[in-house]
Amino acid sequence: MDDDIDSEWPASPASALQLLIDGNKRFVAGERLHPHQDADRRAALAPEQRPFAVLFGCSDSRLAAEIIFDQGLGDLFVVRTAGHVVGAEVLGSIEYAVAALNTPLIAVLGHDSCGAIAAAFDAVRHGTTPEGFVRDVVERVMLSVLAVQSNALADADAAVEEHIRYTVDLLLRRSKVIGDRLADGRLGVVGLSYGLAEGNVRRIAGNGV
Question: 20 to 30 A Cα–Cα from 184, which one of 28, 49, 151, 156?
Fold first, then answer.
């Protein structure tokens, strides 16, 4: 691995999280550095990648990970699905980053005004679900919505936050690779919520970080 890339590697899950938080603060303030986006970086990464965080987030077009965290090539291993729902492909992708690339942090990223959560609420209220494979997404979000149904009627963010916590917990329960790395201190898992209008992230849940 290139010496410059190696020297930037965070020493712990906590320091990896701080890189994300610092980058988001620059994004919100309009002071982005646009790091690691030049030809030298591209060439240095060609033989091997070493991302400092897995970003598992919603597929919403307003959550472009490298932009909102002010990162560049090789910094983030990004996995995205509508409503950040978890399936075998998601778990396999995250486990690859953790086990093969030794990535020290998994960040689950949800956001306000999430279409998947809104669709799940409609299904609960009206007893109908979308057609096609969108139904599968809605059904996977449903447990989070049902857990906070009464609160979420008054506060839509309650369902967003519950689903982030649910996803963090699900990753830990479903993946032995993630659980083992967390237990020995080599990995942290954090849940973050992104505000679409403000552009900032808030910590919702965390383990090992």
Answer: 49
User: Which domains can be identified in the chain, with CATH numbers?
Assistant: 3-206 (3.40.1050.10)
- Please indicate if the annotation marks 136 as binding a ligand: no
Contacts of 7 (CB under 8 A, 6+ apart): none
Establish whether 169 is an annotated binding residue: no
What pTM was estimated for this model as a whole?
A: 0.92
Q: Is there a binding annotation on residue 38? A: no
The answer on whether 122 is annotated among ligand-binding residues is: no
Average confidence (pLDDT) per 10 residues, the chain, 209 residues: 60 95 98 95 94 97 97 97 96 98 97 91 82 90 80 75 94 97 97 97 96
